[in-house]
Design a protein that fits this description.
Length: 359
């Protein structure tokens, strides 16, 4: 679309699970809306995940509003391809107006609307819902010597499977689900693996999966609203014991060492003087929200996130942020949690749109 800016009531940036969940509720509300997505194919970040990644909940608890994810062909826990197939079908089934590939470069304040600048022209929108996820901003912490390492370094986002690690001496960094799953499979082929974490990793009990975590997040959310305290997910543990992780635990491959303090040309070193030679360092150290397109609005707070009330940006009420993590709704960065936040967001957005139209 090149030419005169097009006006819509609601413009959603990103057609991953968060953007699609918003689309579902916008469709039901009969909103005038469009969804722009930078990728040429559907599926959001799941399309880039390593093929053997297992979701931490069974399919029926990994679903967006309106439609259950079908049972996985690969076992109780769906894989990344299952998630892509599900989102692709979801987008079609609800006939969601996704335009792709369109990259949003900047969102700016206009007079009555927000101005959305893209590589396919300009849109004007009364409300923008940003749902661009985190996958696009892998995070690697700085350690002295990081630039001098002569082996290979990669981040979770670059990991494609264990084959490249055959016979290697690998160091896996990070105490979360990605680290545990990647370590579980690398340890079956590598010459040696060393797992390093900042604090002792904690496996959840075998019966706790993503559904149980979502229930806990919900209880905690309601308790917080009522001014009470409740058990949090982190009180239980961090890592879901999907089958591959259980097997690795049972064969003793999940023993963690403290974090190293520096990187040498040929390995890593701890502050007590111990050193370890390695061929490869795998950084399973997470992601940051992809918010660069919102920079012109100058909304970022001191922690790098945008302060919100619910999902609405405090500094720009015409902007909502969806799906980035608990700061944009409890469990909102999961398949099962995205729907509830999207429902509440769209209810608020529709109220805002009608106020603008009446005004
Ligand atoms: P994305 O899926 O990243 O979608 C964002 C979309 O926005 C993309 O299509 C992208 O192209 C587009 N976009 C980005 N920037 C722009 C721009 N400037 N202009 C236009 N379009 C743009 N969740 C679970 O529920 N269960 C799990 O088991 C689970 N396991 C996970 C394992 C890993 C390793 C990771 C990293 C995450 C996992 N998650 C899991 C979390 C979560 O479900 C994903 O992170 C999810 O992909 C987030 O969805 P999203 O829609 O917010 O973002």
């Amino acid at each position: 679309m090149i030419g005169a800016p097009r006006l819509v009531d609601v413009l959603v940036i990103g057609a991953g699970q968060a953007g699609l969940a918003a689309g579902y509720h916008l469709r039901r509300a009969q909103a005038d809306f469009v969804i722009l997505d930078a990728q040429s194919q559907s599926g959001g970040a799941w399309r880039h995940a390593w093929p053997s990644l297992r979701l931490f909940s069974p399919a029926r608890y990994s679903s967006l509003p309106g439609r259950m994810m079908p049972p996985s062909r690969s076992g109780d826990y769906p894989d990344a391809a299952d998630a892509v197939a599900y989102l692709t079908d979801y987008e079609r089934r609800y006939d969601l107006p996704v335009i792709r590939p369109v990259t949003v470069h900047n969102v700016r304040r206009g007079d009555a609307c927000l101005r959305v600048e893209t590589d396919a022209g300009i849109w004007r929108a009364r409300i923008v819902i940003s749902a661009t996820g985190t996958w696009w901003r892998p995070y690697v912490p700085y350690y002295p010597g990081i630039g001098d390492f002569t082996g290979r370094q990669l981040h979770t986002a670059d990991y494609r499977g264990p084959e490249a690690f055959c016979g290697k001496n690998a160091v896996i960094v990070g105490g979360g689900n990605s680290a545990a799953q990647i370590l579980a499979e690398i340890s079956t082929v590598a010459r040696a693996t060393t797992w390093v974490t900042r604090r002792t990793p904690r496996l959840l009990p075998d019966e706790v999966d993503g559904k149980a975590l979502f229930d806990l997040a919900t209880r905690r959310h309601h308790a917080a609203l009522a001014g009470e305290s409740a058990t949090g997910i982190s009180d239980l543990g961090d890592i879901v014991a999907v089958p591959a992780v259980r097997q690795a635990r049972d064969r003793g491959a999940l023993k963690a060492e403290p974090m190293f303090s520096r990187i040498t040309p040929h390995g890593v070193a701890w502050s007590d003087g111990a050193e370890l030679a390695c061929d490869v360092i795998v950084w399973c150290t997470g992601f940051r929200p992809a918010l660069g397109h919102l920079a012109p609005l100058r909304l970022r707070g001191p922690e790098g996130v945008i302060p919100t009330t619910g999902t609405r940006a405090l500094g720009e009420p015409r902007l909502h942020l969806l799906g980035y993590g608990d700061w944009t709704g409890p469990a909102s960065a999961t398949l099962i949690g995205a729907g509830r936040t999207a429902r509440d967001t769209v209810a608020e957005v529709m109220k805002q749109v009608s106020e603008v139209s009446d005004g």
